[in-house]
Structure formats: C-alpha cells, structure tokens
Amino acid sequence: MTGATLSSILEDQTLAFGRFAQIGRAEAAAMLAGLYEHSDWIVEAALQDHPFASLAALKRRLVEVVSDSSREQRLALIRAHPPLSAKAKIDESIAKDSRSEQSLVGLDKCSPEEFEALTTLNAQYLEKFGWPFILAVRGPRGLGLSRAAIIASLNRRLAMPAEEEFEECLRQIHRIAEMRLDERLGLEPTLGSQVWDACEALAKFSEDTDGLTVTYLSEAHKNCAALLRQQMQSAGFDEVFEDLVGNVVGVYKGDPGQSGSAVGACKRLMTGSHYDTVRNGGKYDGRIGIQIPIVAVTQLKKTGIRLPFDLEVIGFSEEEGVRFKCTFLGSGAVAGKFDLSVLGATDANGVRLDQALQAEGRIVNPDSLKSIAREPSDYLGFVEIHIEQGPVLTQQDLPLGAVTSINGSARYMVEIRGLASHAGTTPMTGRRDAAAAAAEFMVELEQVARQMPDCVATVGQLQVVNGSTNVVPGRVTLSLDLRAPTNGQRDELVQKAMTLLEDTCHRRRVELTCQQTLLASAAPSAPGLQDAWEASIAQLGLPIFRLPSGAGHDAMKLHEVMPQAMLFVRGENLGISHNPLESSTNHDLQLGCEAFLNLLSQLSLNPHHPNA
Amino acid sequence: MTGATLSSILEDQTLAFGRFAQIGRAEAAAMLAGLYEHSDWIVEAALQDHPFASLAALKRRLVEVVSDSSREQRLALIRAHPPLSAKAKIDESIAKDSRSEQSLVGLDKCSPEEFEALTTLNAQYLEKFGWPFILAVRGPRGLGLSRAAIIASLNRRLAMPAEEEFEECLRQIHRIAEMRLDERLGLEPTLGSQVWDACEALAKFSEDTDGLTVTYLSEAHKNCAALLRQQMQSAGFDEVFEDLVGNVVGVYKGDPGQSGSAVGACKRLMTGSHYDTVRNGGKYDGRIGIQIPIVAVTQLKKTGIRLPFDLEVIGFSEEEGVRFKCTFLGSGAVAGKFDLSVLGATDANGVRLDQALQAEGRIVNPDSLKSIAREPSDYLGFVEIHIEQGPVLTQQDLPLGAVTSINGSARYMVEIRGLASHAGTTPMTGRRDAAAAAAEFMVELEQVARQMPDCVATVGQLQVVNGSTNVVPGRVTLSLDLRAPTNGQRDELVQKAMTLLEDTCHRRRVELTCQQTLLASAAPSAPGLQDAWEASIAQLGLPIFRLPSGAGHDAMKLHEVMPQAMLFVRGENLGISHNPLESSTNHDLQLGCEAFLNLLSQLSLNPHHPNA
Fold it and tell me: Which residue among A347, A468, A510, B290 is least crowded, i.e. fewest CB within 10 A of its CB?
C-alpha cells in the first residue's frame, strides 16, 4: 500500500470539492452568494484565488479576507446579521439562510419565558456591545442547539469584554458560513461527525448526574472501557483487549510484505490518549485521541487497506490523577514506568489503589507489569491527537497545530513574611508589606515570561493570610507555576524567577520561603514525527502552525522510551477545557481524521522512519 | 498663676540636671564614663556641647552622635556589648554596669532549660546577624524583665531583617544608657513611672485571662471605670463622676480670678482618651491620655496650683468599636454627636446595645444625651495625648511628636474578574489574569501614595478566589484603604487610585467592581493648640517633629465641635499597637507628663486662646 492509495479513503470529499474547483469564478461566486450575511464581498474577494486546492484552503482564505478587512467592515459584517429572535420566521428582512437556521432550532417555538429571556438578553447585549448577538445556532455538530443552550450562551457571552466578544462573533460567523458551504457544495464531514458521536456515546457514562466525571476504576470508567472495546471491534481491529491497568488496546495489523521486514513482522506505530476525565470535565479531552484513530481504522478496514506497520491504538485508563492523585497510570504502565510505590495511594474514601485494583481481580506487581510494558524497539514511535485545551488555535483561526514540545514545568509554594502593622500609622517608606512584595514580583515575573518565547509563568493562588483592611499585610502565600518548551528554557525561567523573587524580597526587607513542589521534564517532539504531522497538515491545504503544549499528556510518558509527536485540534470557546464548555466541531474533528490518515500515509512512505 | 510657677512642679528634676550642667566638661565626661559599653567616644563627642539646657537635650545629642557615626563605629558599639549570658556574673571581661544589669534580672539564676534556650538562641542570633543580641534587660519601667520575657524577645528579634535589627540594637543601647544616666545624675522619671504603674493597675482588668481585652460595658470595663474614678479622686480632682454612657470625668477647677472672666466662671480645657481596648490589645493605647493628665493634676493639687481655666479630664468609655461595631460612643456623646440609630446594634451574642445599657440602668435617649453633650463655646478646646501606634517616632529616635492632622480616609472593597484558564496552555499575551491586574494596580498605587506626603494606601486583604496552582486567576478580591491629612488630599488620592484601577483593568481586559465602604473626614489640628504643643516640646529641649495621625482618635469626634490638637508619645517595638507587644518606657511617659504640664503653662499665658 502507498500513501496515494490511502488517500482514496477521502475520495468522496475530494471529488465533491473537485467539481467545485472546476467551475468558473463567476459561477462559483453565485453558488456561494449569501455565505456571509448580506456580505458577498467576502466570497468575491476570496474567489480571486479560485480554484483552491482543498476545502480547507478555501475556508482559510475566507477567514483571511475577513481578518484583513478594516474594523468598520468587520463591524458591518456582524451588524448585517439579524438578532436571534423568536419572531425570525415572519421577519422578511432576514436572509433566508438565517431564517431557516433560526427555525431549525425552534426559535419560533419559544415558551413565553424563553421569549422574555431572549428579548431581555438581546437588548442587554446590544446595549453593551453595540452589535447583535451572533451564534451559530446549528451548533458544533450541525444538528441545532437547544433553546436553553442558546440562552445560556447568550448569558455567558454578555459577560465577555467587548474586544473578545467582537472576535467571537466573527468566529461564529465563519462557523455559520462553514455549514452553509457544505450545503452549497453537497459536502459533509462524515468522519468528524462519527468521532463527535462516538465522544457523545462515551460521555453517557459518568459518576455524576450533572457533569461528566470518569475517575479510575469507577463504574462509569468500566463502562467506558467496555464501550471502547466494542467500538474497536466494530471498527475492525484485528486484536482488541483490555490490559491489567485498564488500558483498552486495539491492534490493526500491518502487511509484513509491504514493511520490508526480513523476519515477517511489522514495526508498530502507537497512538491513543486517555479516557478518564477530571470532575465535571469535557467530552473531548483525551477521548478524540482514541476516537479519531478508531474512525481511521474503520475506513482502512472498509477499503481493505493494510499499512506497512501495525497500528496500535490505546485508550489509556488513567491520566488525570483525580481519584488517587497519581497521574499517567495507564501510559506509565505501557512505557514500563509504572511506579509501584503509588499502589499505597488512597482515594477520598480511604480506598487504597492496590485494593481497588485487586477488587477487580487486577494483580499489579513487577511480574504482571512486565507483560504490559512495551519493547520500545518494536515501535516507530507514538503519536497523540489531543484537543488543544488553550486559546492559541482559536485565536489564530486555525483548526490544527503541530506540537513542538510538551513543556517542562516547575512548581513552587512561596511564603513571604513582612511585618503586619497599622495601615494608617505606618508610612509608605517604612513598610515591610508582604503583599506589595508579592505584587512587585508578579508584575516583573510576567515581563520575564513574556520575553521568553512559549514560556508561561502563573501565580494561581495568592492570599494575604489573615488580612484586614486596615493592616499592612504581614504574610502572603502564593503558588508559582513555570513552564517552558525545553528543560534548558525551564531552568532559565526558574533561575530568573528565583532571582527576581529573592531580589524583590531582599530589597523590601521581607522574608521568603520557597518550596519546590514539582519538577517535570520537557518532552520535545521527535523531529521526524513532527515533520510527518506538519506534512499531513500541509497536505490538507492548511498553513503549518507550530505550538508547544502547556499541559501534560500521555505522550510525556511515552517520550521516556520512544519518539513522540502530537497534533492539536482547536477547541471552541477559546479552548476552554476541564470544563463542560469544552467543545469541538465535527468539521475540526473531520480535519483531525484527515490529518491522521495523511500521517499514516506519510509514515507509509518511509516505514523505517529515521527518528529522534 | 503663671507658667513659670507651674514649671516649679518639675523643680527636683531641673535642679538635679542643673547641678550637672554646672560642672566642667572633663568632670562631666568622667561621670558619664561607661554610659556606652567600652565606647566613651560617644559621651566625649556629645559633651563638646556641654552644658545642655535639659536632660532631654543631652540624650538627644548622644543619639545624634551615634547616628552620625560610621556604620563601622555603630557595629563596633554593638559588638562592644557582652552577649546575654547565664555566666555573666563570672565573666570578668564584661563591664560592671552590664554585669549588674544582667544580674538584676537573674540571668545568673537560669534554669537548665532557660540556660539551654538562651545559649542556643544567642548562637543562632550571632550566626544570623554577626553581632550579639542587645536588650535593655531592665525593661520599660527599669525594674527588670522576666527571663521568659527576655527569651521571648530574643526569639522574636531573631526573625527580624538584619537592617532593622541593627537599628533596634542601637535603640536598646540608648535605652540602657538612658537608665545608666539616671543613676549617674541621681535622677528618676517619677511622673512617668506613676503613669506606667497606673496603666499596669488598669490592665489588671480584662475579659480574657491571656491578653488584655476590655470591651464596652463588660465586667472588666466597669472595673476600669471604677478604678479611674478612684485614681481621679486620689489625684485631687474637684469633681469626679461617671456619665450615662460610661465616660469617667474629672474636673480640676480653675481660678476664675486668674481667668479674667467677667462672670466669675472659667473656660475649660478638655483632655482625655479612651479606656476600652481591642481584643488582646495594648496597655497604653488610649489610657496614657487619661493617666498623664491625672498625674499632672496630682502635681497641681500637691503644689496648690490653680490654672486660669477648668481642666476637664475624660476617660472615654468606648472608642474601638469592638463589641458593637460602633466606634466613638463615649466621645461622640460628649461632642453631642451620639447617633441613636446605633442603639439597635448587637454584639456577638445578639445582645442589643440599648439592652446592654438598660441592664446597667443607663437610659440613653435624646433627652438624657443632652445632659452629656458639652456646650462648645465653654471650651478652649480639646487636647489628646496618645501613644503613636506607628514607627515614625521610633525611627526618628524622638520621644514626642506634634500631630498635624488626623488623616481622613476612604475604604473600598474591590473585585476584579478576568478569565480563569489553563496556566499551561494560555500564552502570556492572551491572558485575562485577574491577579496580574491586581498586582500591577498595587505596584503603581504604592508609587502614587509614596509621592503624596503623609498619605498612605494599603491593600490589606487580597485573595485569588478558588485559586489553583495551574489555573490563571479568574477572580480576585482585595480591600483598599486610603488615608491623607486633608480631605482635599484624600480625594486626590482616591481619584488617582480609582483612575489607576480602572485604567489597569481596562488595559488588561478584566472587569471591575469597586464599592466604597467608608469615607471619613480629616481632622486637621487647630493651629493655636498645635503651636502650644510644639512650644511645650521645644521647652523640653527636644526638636519639634510634626506628623499626621494615620489612626482615628477621640479627637476626631471632638474636632466636629471644637478646636483640637494631639501629642504623640513614641511606642517601643517599632510602635506596634493593638498587640500585647505595645510598650512605652517610663522615661517617654515622663516626657509626656512634662510636655502636658508645659502645655498647661503655655495655655495659662493666654487663657482666651485664639484658635482654629
């Protein structure tokens, strides 16, 4: 099998867009009229570059036209949209597309309370921002949001700063256009919708009735594992099993004939992510990194394609560390790095980890762990797809990004002790104000971090201990979280932060205690695998955008034993994660699937991938 | 009676110092040898200006010689002192004075535990600072500290920054010299010791067994009132009574013949302060403002002196607002400003203020209050002596200061709301960090306040709400306390602070809520009365030092109806107050008594004082 053959999976999509690419510019413009509400200038400007190599490239160009336009033009674009109205159906001034979208979600069937809420909130919104509230009411899956969800969204966005809300409206407008474009061209993000639906199915299992909570070895966790096995079996994996620590593994065998192996066995490519969640977490964190490969294998199986390597997809059982405060239990075991000392850790009810495992008949000991640990030399490496969990791709208007490194980090708990004294009687110059020292440190630390590319520094906890309005602060505690793409940069950031902290405290004659609570190594992407992801993105007609991962991922564990590289998929709502608002669209997930298939194609061209 | 006659009260002191002033410089130097441990250069340098006008002027010069010397000389002075040692008695290298001082407090009678503690702490102290621990072991009254108090002091000062501890050692050395000087010259701060002892007697009554707590209408409070009445009666006041709200009032009648009054009645001078305390408060806060005038009247009565005005001394029953959260109940009633709406206020046990008053047979209503409210035109004004409750006089090495104004103030509760987001995945530039906004505001506010003379700005409470190490702060609450000597300066400070806060939040795209919780007017001193205090200080041979009061005092209430001016007496331990460490020496209290007698003398020269 070759990369060319693999890409035939996406033939339907390619053909449909290919037909559009072949028509003339004027006809294309006519097809796309109304894509942007009363603003056909956007389509006309974009189509100067017609024909486009891909749907993604066309969409990208449309986004660029808007972002390159003047603020007045962008404001006019937003204002061209009708407000979300219960009366949409009868208002003839509203464009047909908008009418049908608003009607789809039943805005014309509002209860009196819903009508009242919408009317009031719309008025407040218009009053605050000076433009109407824009929401792609068809939602992230294109099937329509509930009226309750629409009202909640309006409520939430009413609290945003104007500049951010302006940008969010433009993003919603592009999302509306993206779905209208599908209709015009007869396209559908089938694979993305499959991934979205699979995530939805998995999210049916939760420990809480309200939000999504799946912690290690809970009933919901077991149900998730069972569903993953079933999904893998349906997809056509050759082997599906659950290992001792709860990892769900599916292997789609390669073709040794293609692999060029002398011994009749393929190398393996490992991929996957975790299926546990934080409390009240999101449906996509971890899980799209399992579901996208499963959907890809569905396609491989359906078209009878075999790769020149085994594809091993793992749903890691534990990454978040919620229940036992120990992270990476699943990927740690696979990497052969399971730390037996964590078996004594207890959950909130006092249940020990080893007891919880034994209750399931899982006997974890050095011998049994050996059977899980992979032999790194069997592997080409590990790739992981993950929702970004940050705002960078959203702000760049890009659906995909190539991860350069999983940032290393260091954490500290800091205590600053000055002299508590009377706020009225202690002159400014004689003070030993612990909070003033903390504030000066924070302001300067922010500057330091800003000057170091891709580094972040955060004071997330901060408190004047027993503070009173009329007492100069005598004691402050604060937390410090420093992250950088390489260990060298991390150490430089740590050193600068510590010098700054010590100098500030010395200058202000306050005392300092600083305790390191975490030191984690950076996991830079293997250049070869990162290159392959970048090529896969470029193949989609999208610009290559590189970013580090500020959060930890299973790939950090695998990094200890084999080359790894990650792909990030944009998250909606400014990339919020560990939160029910975490969201991804079927269109972005579609691109994730396509990029993964492209990656398999890239790696097929060179199965003995020379790596990190 | 004239001022000259009044000053005869201090004749003993004056004569003793006068004898010293008459001897030659060499003999004087010989008398004062050893005043400073192995450092007679200090006495020799100071005596270049011999003879001095007063004891206070000599002491002041000694302090100046040390503060004008090089750091090496000051360090050598500190190092010339022996460590506090349980073996002091047998160590022949230690100067005689130090041996007898250490022996006085029984350092040679240490238990094994005390010996162990002293040895260990002394070693740690020497290790940290590089010089021995210096403490005037005779204490603030000259009678010797307990060994437990010495060890506690050592423990506390071990935690100080080096620069402050260096200064504190020099202050202790001057205190040691001050007491040695008394011995050499045969002087004694008799009046100061009387005040100190009276404060000690008053402090026997407390609601708590541990610390000093005297809240309004408690058993301890009633006992204090009874003791004050008794002290006033013993002192020889002509009238002593307790009024409806618990103020203890003593009137020492003036001589209408001297007053020049046509109607045979004198004008009155009111003085006094409060006798209630905060929880676990100090023994001197408020109380020296009652005890110094009582001791002064003792002297007037003993010498048969009558002033050309009535002297009315009031122990105000309530100033701190601890029990019912309403402040100035005592002075408010005297000023005719008792707010009847506070009668419904409840204490922590749900007891209403009016119930608590009625239980004592105190019926507070508009009619009964009329009998307390003074007629302002009967008064020359109000003067109040108070412990500074701040570090300024200590840092200036000055025992007394003339108050220019009681600062006006404004307080706010501020909430800053940004966007909580992942500390790892949110780049520095995309953040809406509520804590970073607070920190920037705090740093700039500090600069603003520093540039406005005698103004202070304090963020005393500060907290990231529900902060986590790995989450960019989404919400911060902080308190803001702004004070300035005049209402104009206060309003300017408020305006600058608010502009700064709004600009910072706007720039950082975070939202702001700011609620004013207090706005209090400044109470500038009446120029005539302030002049009289300054003349009284100058008469002692001390430099005139002016400072505002950052804290509120009873004089603020009287300010609403009559001229007022305050005198501050230095507090030990960097002026700490509302704390058991609050302290004043009998020598400083002696100067307070002398300054008050001088003030009476000043005002006697012009009984129809032209005022504010």
Answer: A468
Q: Using CA coordinates, name the residue in chain B closest to A480.
A: B469
What three-state secondary structure class fits B384?
A: strand
CB atoms within 10 A of CB A210: 8
Say which residues have a Cβ less than 8 Å from residue A390's Cβ, sequence separation at least 6.
A550, A551, A571, A575, A577, B421, B422, B424, B425, B426, B427
CA distance A379 to chain B (A): 29
Q: Give the mean pLDDT of chain B.
A: 93
For residues B511-526, one letter each, b for 16 or more C-beta atoms within 10 angstroms of the residue's C-beta and e for the rest, the string is bbebeeeeebebbbbb
Question: What does the buried/exposed string (b/e) look like for B147-174 if buried means 16 or more CB atoms within 10 Å of the residue's CB?
Answer: beebbebbeebbebbeebbbbbbbbbbb
Please report residues of B whose CB lies closer than 8 A to that of A432.
161, 164
B237-273 pLDDT per residue, tens: 999 999 999 999 999 999 988 776 666 678 999 999 9
d(CA B169, CA B180) in angstroms, rounded, equals 17
B596 phi/psi in degrees, rounded to 5 = -65, -45
Are B599 and B258 contacting, i.e. CB atoms less than 8 angstroms apart? no
Average pLDDT over residues B128-137: 96
CA nearest to A575, candidates A565, A566, A585: A585
> What sign does the dihedral A589-A590-A594-A595 (CA atoms) show?
negative
Query: Which residues in chain A are closer than 8 Å to B409, comparing Cβ atoms?
Result: 424
Main-chain dihedrals φ then ψ at residue A289, nearest 5 degrees: -75, -10
Question: How many other C-beta atoms lie within 10 A of the C-beta of residue A96?
Answer: 8
**What pLDDT does A365 receive?**
93
- DSSP code at position A346: B
**Token pair for B204:** 């026997």
Chain A residues 462-481 within an 8 A CB cutoff of chain B: 462-464, 467-473, 476, 479-481
Question: Chain A partners of B407 at a C-beta cutoff of 8 Å?
Answer: 424
Evaluate whether B595 touches B400 at the Cβ level (below 8 Å). yes
What residues in B contact A509, CB-CB < 8 Å?
Answer: 161, 163-164
Supply B86's token pair.
């349980």
Find the CB nearest B449 among A421, A428, A442: A428
Optimal mutation site among B322, B404, B428, B553, interface A, most CBs of chain A within 10 A? B428
Q: Could you report the predicted ipTM of this complex, rounded to two decimals?
A: 0.84
Whole-number Å distance between alpha carbons of A40 and A29: 8
Hey, which residues does A314 pair with through a beta bridge?
A249, A272
* Cβ contacts of B578 on chain A, cutoff 8 Å: 422
pLDDT tens readout for residues A323-361:
998 899 999 999 999 999 999 999 999 999 999 999 999
Residue A169 DSSP class: H
Looking at CA atoms only, how far is residue B415 from chain A in angstroms? Answer: 14
Q: Mark which residues 547-606 of A lie under 8 Å from B by CB.
A: 549-552, 574-578
3-state class (DSSP) for residue A386? strand
**pLDDT tens-place string over residues B431-446:** 999 999 999 999 999 9
- Give the CB-side neighbour count of residue A109, counting CA atoms within 13 A: 7
Quote the longest CA-to-CA distance of chain A.
86
Relative to beta strand A421-422, strand B268-274 is unpaired
A positions 480-499 inside 8 Å of B (CB): 480-481, 483
Q: What is the per-residue pLDDT for A43? A: 97
Contact A80/A37 with Cβ under 8 angstroms?
Answer: yes
Q: What is the pLDDT of residues B183-212, one digit of tens each?
A: 999 999 999 999 999 999 999 999 999 889
Residue pLDDT, tens place only, B137-164: 999 999 999 999 999 999 999 988 898 8
